[in-house]
Write a structure and sequence with these properties.
By secondary structure, the chain is α/β, with parallel strands linked by helices. It has a single domain, classed as Rossmann fold. It is 44% helix and 15% strand. It has a seven-stranded parallel sheet, with helices on both faces. The protein is globular and about 45 Å long.
Length: 203
């Protein structure tokens, strides 16, 4: 799917300047996932893109943000007051936005990003990415979406989506709403091409 075209609906677009990343703050995941988060943070910074993320300093979130900063990137964290009270907010963010709850957090993360990348994560991560995918399918936005399928993590989910298409609960165009990347390199290459295409559309 052309990253700049959605179901016949063209929206105002501009080059990617900020990337919203959805991921886990669990301290207990395998190191392959933490490493992928680290590599993604560094890669986003190398493109001079702003990182927007969930604002916690632990788990994959922490690895993502620390790597972006170490590579000279700027980081915006968006987190609810509940998690600030738990003491896991990332106070080193260039901008830390504290929301009243999870719904406001998700809304701001969507607004502040020009593209979305989803690393492996739990129920909260899945909720976030599905809301973004549905929004694109309905035409509320046309921003690029990447599922970063580290270690085949999303294979069962992708199979479930195919099952839903086969059973006619999900429209086949859902396949075009996101890009599945096997590694960080593919993720950055896809977003860079999308950004170039959006820049061409803007001009």
């Amino acid at each position: 799917m052309n990253p700049d075209h959605h179901g016949g609906l063209q929206c105002h677009m501009s080059p990617i300047r900020a990337v919203t990343v959805y991921c886990s703050s669990s301290r207990h995941v395998d190191g392959v996932y933490t490493q992928a988060a680290h590599d993604l943070g560094a890669a986003i910074a190398s493109q001079n893109w702003l990182l927007v993320y969930g604002g916690n300093h632990i788990g994959c979130m922490g690895a993502l943000a620390d790597a972006a900063r170490d590579a000279g990137g700027k980081v915006i964290g968006i987190t609810p007051q509940l998690l600030v009270d738990d003491g896991i907010a990332d106070e080193e963010c260039d901008e830390l936005v504290v929301t009243s709850g999870m719904r406001e957090r998700k809304e701001l993360m969507e607004q502040r990003g020009d593209a979305f990348v989803t690393l492996p994560g739990g129920l909260g991560t899945l909720e976030e990415v599905f809301e973004i995918i549905v929004g694109r399918m309905l035409g509320y936005h046309s921003k690029p979406i990447v599922l970063l399928n580290v270690n085949g993590f999303y294979d069962p989910l992708l199979a479930m989506i195919e099952h839903g298409i086969e059973q006619r609960f999900i429209k086949a165009k859902a396949r075009d709403a996101y890009f599945v990347a096997e590694d960080v390199r593919q993720t950055i290459e896809y977003l860079a091409k999308a950004s170039q295409a959006r820049a061409g559309y803007e001009t």
